[in-house]
């Protein structure tokens, strides 16, 4: 753990938080709101480390950061209501702090690949998927960011679940192929309906079919190298996907690629 005397620091942090909140309310001060949120974040980190001491590059800090990020982002969205006009100056500090915490959670997740068998890793990845929606709400081109981040995070989540379950090379190859087709279906069938019903939470589907192609091709190649698929089977699944991909591109060469496969 951090080794900080959490119990001794709690009173000082609580007093600082209270004073920053009062100052921000009295002066409608955005800097004081930022200071209050930094103090709150430090208090949460200290509390989490005191209750469950963690080693460096462990799942604890990213889990804590993504949970706090989601809470702050949701609070910022709640302040968009008319009744929240007196405290609307908190929206930007809440949104910025939640974005920073989300970035820290993502950065903390990257080196955790060696913890693939830890059942908390899929939970962390699922929380990152969910928190991406409120966190990106105030961002420019929020739909584009969701369209990039969501399929990547979901793909890593599927891979993490496969590792946790213990899929062998054959099963992993077929899972990657099936997941590629699922990404195509999500981008072409599910997301247009989602975006029409909830435009404020839209997800750009443009990259989903291309990521699906990468998954199908990568899974097929791994399957051939592992002896789980024949080259003919690889060409068959690629040809079908390329035909489906004609829906997403006007490039005439795609049809020739599908025929060649």
Tell me what you see in this structure.
With 261 residues, the chain is mainly α. It is 74% helix and 0% strand. It has 10 helices and no strands. It has helices at 6-27, 30-51, 60-78, 91-109, 120-136, 142-165, 169-197, 208-225, 231-245, 253-260. Helix 2 (30-51) runs parallel beside helix 4, helix 3 packs parallel to helix 5 and helix 5 (120-136) packs antiparallel against helix 6 (142-165). The longest helix is centred in the C-terminal third of the chain and has 29 residues, at 169-197. The protein is elongated and about 70 Å long. The termini are far apart. Residues 253-261 have low confidence and may be disordered.
Biggest sheet architecture: none
The total strand number stands at 0
* Classification by helices and strands: mainly alpha
Q: Roughly how much helix do the residues carry, as a percent range? A: over 70%
Query: What's the assembly state of these chains?
Result: single chain
Order of helices and strands: HHHHHHHHHH
- Distance from N terminus to C terminus (CA atoms, Å) equals 55 Å
For the CA atoms, what is the radius of gyration?
23 Å
| Relative strand content | under 5%
| Shape designation | elongated
Which regions have little confidence, pLDDT < 50, spanning 5+ residues? Answer: 253-261
Mean pLDDT across the residues is: 85
Instruction: Count the DSSP helices.
Output: 10
């Amino acid at each position: 753990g951090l080794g900080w005397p959490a119990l001794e620091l709690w009173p000082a942090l609580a007093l600082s938080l209270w004073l920053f909140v009062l100052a921000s309310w009295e002066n409608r001060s955005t800097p004081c709101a930022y200071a209050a949120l930094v103090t709150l974040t430090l208090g949460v980190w200290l509390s989490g480390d005191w209750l469950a001491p963690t080693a460096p590059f462990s799942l604890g800090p990213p889990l804590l950061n993504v949970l706090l990020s989601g809470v702050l982002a949701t609070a910022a969205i709640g302040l968009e209501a008319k009744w929240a006009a007196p405290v609307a100056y908190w929206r930007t500090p809440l949104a910025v702090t939640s974005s920073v915490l989300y970035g820290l959670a993502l950065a903390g997740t990257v080196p955790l690949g060696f913890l693939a068998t830890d059942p908390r890793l899929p939970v962390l990845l699922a929380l990152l998927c969910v928190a991406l929606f409120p966190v990106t709400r105030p961002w420019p081109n929020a739909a584009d960011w969701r369209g990039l981040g969501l399929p990547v995070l979901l793909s890593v989540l599927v891979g993490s679940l496969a590792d946790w379950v213990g899929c062998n090379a054959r099963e992993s190859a077929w899972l990657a192929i099936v997941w590629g087709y699922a990404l195509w279906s999500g981008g072409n069938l599910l997301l247009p309906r989602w975006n029409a019903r909830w435009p404020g939470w839209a997800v750009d589907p443009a990259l989903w079919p291309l990521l699906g192609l990468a998954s199908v091709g990568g899974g097929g190649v791994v399957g051939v190298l592992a002896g789980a698929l024949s080259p003919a089977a690889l060409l068959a699944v690629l040809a079908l996907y390329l035909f489906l991909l004609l829906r997403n591109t006007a490039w005439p060469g795609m049809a020739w690629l599908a025929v060649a496969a």
